Amino acid sequence: MTGLINAIPATNKDEYKNVGVYIEHRGDELKRPSIEMIGIGKQLARKVNEKLICVVIGDKVDGIAKEVGEYGCDIVLAAESPELAEYRTMPYAEIIGGYIQEYKPNIFLLAATRNGRDLASRIAVKSRTGITADCTVLDIDENRTLLANRPTYGESTLAEILCRNHRPQMATARPGIFPPAEKEKDHKYEVIKKKVDVDKKLLGKQILKFIPRKSTDLTSAKIVVAGGLGLGGPDGFKMLEELANLIGGAVGSSRPPVDLGWITRDHQVGQTGQSVRPDLYIAVGISGKPQHIAGMKFSKVIVSINKDPNAEITKYSDYIITEDYRKVIPALIDAIKNSKKAQAPVQKA
Amino acid sequence: MLNIVVMIKQVPDSSEVEIDPVKMTLNRTKARNVVNASDLNALEYALQIKDKVGATITVISMGPPMADSAIIECMARGADRGILITDRAFAGADTYPTGLTLAATISKIGNVDIIFGGDETTDSSTGHVGPGVAEFLGIDQITYAKTVDYEDGYVVATRELEDGDEIVKVKPPVLVTVLLNSNLPRHQSLRKKIDALRKGVESWGVNELGLKPEWVGLRGSPTIVRSMKTIKEIEHMKKKIDIDHLGDMVKELVDKGLIKAGGSQ
Ligand SMILES: Cc1cc2nc3c(=O)[nH]c(=O)nc-3n(C[C@H](O)[C@H](O)[C@H](O)COP(=O)(O)OP(=O)(O)OC[C@H]3O[C@@H](n4cnc5c(N)ncnc54)[C@H](O)[C@@H]3O)c2cc1C
Ligand SMILES: Cc1cc2nc3c(=O)[nH]c(=O)nc-3n(C[C@H](O)[C@H](O)[C@H](O)COP(=O)(O)OP(=O)(O)OC[C@H]3O[C@@H](n4cnc5c(N)ncnc54)[C@H](O)[C@@H]3O)c2cc1C
């Protein structure tokens, strides 16, 4: 074990400029949470007329670097080596730490994915600075101070956390909250590529196997039909699936059905699941506990179907249907199917 | 024999924390203090390794004096030694000095092979302490592990990621953070509890760790909480729809362009 880093000297803030973002990808696939980070990073940088700098690490990263540039990044720092093909904490942290020393960004952001969180606080400690975790609101003031806001206390309060005397100001941001960046036609960007020789000492972790899991990406769904404990069993989800298929939605869940094995974890919405913001969220047999609300309250329109007229979910609902879901869902399916007949020209049999 | 450290934090029992319906804040006063849930999963993996190959398990926690009960609980489950890192100077720490303090403790224990922690706490849930400790110590880490084993001198673990499971192998020293509910923690044993109470919990402060008060706690924290705001809720229509009038709602949803008439097929 090496020596400890003790006191942290305050940094000279004037030396630090621009917004940095770490980009996650698996092979040629740019991860959606990183596209969201580009979006918010760009917004912060442009507000104070600074540049957005993105860090891409991997084996062959030209494709990803180009994509990141098209999304509106100004400078793409691309580190390449065959040994960097897969994400590994030690070499990745070393490279990012090096970039931070060299480019001195005022702000550095990562998506709060599992690998993002694996890296984030290591980089903060390496760079001798503070970090705010899992932000849902990020802004920058006229002094270029990052206003990092994270929900706390069962998601009822927003804590604003500042990093006063140390740079970069670091934060991770919750996936599914910030709108993803959109590609910008003719955006000019520069790719600074570096071939790295990875220190063998940092390659101790062997990745024996990666078993991909089919995952349901609820964050890009326009409609989510979610079920809770009130469904009473896995069969309830079949009914929801029928409704979801009819209206082109995805199926979500509160946590208890996942814990009970009625549906897989990739469907879970909430504080410890995915954060979604669809145009339409239909909550079926869900009571509306804060940890669930945390993951869906930014939905545009919320419909709740619950036997209990006083369930907390009603406070968040635009449409409240107080009835057993077993009666409501078939009736709703009929009503949707019939809505076509009403608008289509009458046909003779 | 392996030398294992398990880091634990005492937190209010999240299932007992009530939300104040008016202020929408947490009422922690009624909640019991418990060992953070995933820390018990971490301890369980440490105990399984001890059962398999033999190990000394030291449980450490930074917290107020009352946190010694959490350490005793872990000893009653099978840990051999307990150290409470407690000192006024540690109060108000953000994750940076928390990591520093825990790393200093682990360095003082010396020759540690495996350090276990939870994936995140149920109270402030940053998940940043484990990787921070590993960086201070300059050692490798395995986060979000749902299985952990020790084979032929290596820690082998399955990391659960959003898009799949990653099986990794690392030679100690290594820090491992364990996923909540990844195993079933064993119960406390009465005999071990009596032993634990007899043995007691050691208590270390800033001086014992060779740290300066200004490096830790609030003074050593680069971040500050500037404000706490109740989250403004979006206004919802709260329109009650009778089951016989679902068609009206559907029409509104269609008019707003949220669903297609007749469905998407
Ligand atoms: C650290 C932590 C993290 C958590 N993370 C999450 C998370 O990410 N996501 C999450 O969802 N939860 C999470 N939870 C759990 C959360 O606290 C609640 O327990 C959970 O959201 C409740 O799920 P539910 O609404 O499905 O069940 P319940 O609260 O039991 O509600 C069931 C509802 O169904 C209604 N109902 C029953 N029968 C019918 C019927 N036939 N027709 C219509 N309605 C019916 C009932 O009136 C009731 O309102 C977390 C908890 C903790 C402590
Ligand atoms: C509302 C709120 C928001 C906060 N936000 C931030 C923030 O954004 N950034 C920041 O730097 N700090 C933040 N803090 C401070 C942070 O809670 C403390 O630094 C705390 O000591 C550790 O953080 P955690 O509970 O998030 O630990 P986590 O990183 O979630 O804990 C992971 C694991 O580390 C181990 N561990 C954690 N704490 C201890 C301990 N005291 N003793 C032994 N083992 C431990 C346990 O194994 C635990 O399971 C916040 C505090 C509050 C109250």
Describe this structure as you would to a colleague:
- The complex is a heterodimer of chains A (349) and B (265).
- Chain A is α/β, with parallel strands linked by helices.
- Chain A folds into 2 domains: 13-203, HUPs (Rossmann fold, 3-Layer(aba) Sandwich); 218-340, Rossmann fold, CATH 3.40.50.1220.
- Chain A has helices at 32-47, 62-70, 89-103, 114-126, 234-247, 255-259, 290-293, 325-343, and strands at 19-22, 25-26, 29-30, 52-58, 75-80, 107-111, 131-135, 137-140, 146-152, 157-163, 169-173, 190-195, 206-212, 223-227, 250-253, 280-284, 301-306, 319-322.
- In chain A, the strands form 4 sheets. Chain A has a 7-stranded parallel beta sheet with strand order 7-11-6-1-4-5-12, sandwiched between helices.
- In chain A, a hairpin with a 4-residue loop joins strand 9 (146-152) and strand 10 (157-163).
- Chain A is elongated.
- By secondary structure, chain B is α/β, with parallel strands linked by helices.
- Chain B has a single domain, classed as Rossmann fold.
- Chain B contains 7 helices and 15 strands.
- Chain B has helices at 37-53, 68-76, 95-109, 129-137, 190-199, 206-209, 246-255, and strands at 2-7, 10-12, 18-19, 26-27, 33-35, 55-62, 81-85, 114-118, 140-151, 154-161, 164-170, 174-178, 202-204, 223-230, 239-240.
- In chain B, the strands form 3 sheets. Chain B has a 9-stranded mixed beta sheet with strand order 11-10-9-12-8-1-6-7-13, sandwiched between helices. In chain B, strands 2-5 form a two-stranded antiparallel sheet. Chain B has a two-stranded antiparallel sheet with strand order 3-4.
- In chain B, strand 3 (18-19) and strand 4 (26-27) form a beta hairpin.
- In chain B, helix 2 packs across helix 5 (190-199) and helix 3 (95-109) crosses helix 4.
- The longest helix of chain B is centred in the N-terminal third of the chain and has 17 residues, at 37-53.
- The chains are: A alpha/beta (349), B alpha/beta (265).
- At the A-B interface, helix 3, helix 4, strand 7, strand 10 and strand 13 of A face helix 3, helix 4, strand 9, strand 10 and strand 11 of B.
- Strand 13 of chain A pairs antiparallel with strand 11 of chain B.
- Bound molecules: flavin-adenine dinucleotide (FAD) (2 copies).
- One flavin-adenine dinucleotide (FAD) is lined by residues 228-230, 254-256, 268, 270-273, 285-287, 289, 291-292, 295, 305-308, 311, 324-325 of chain A.
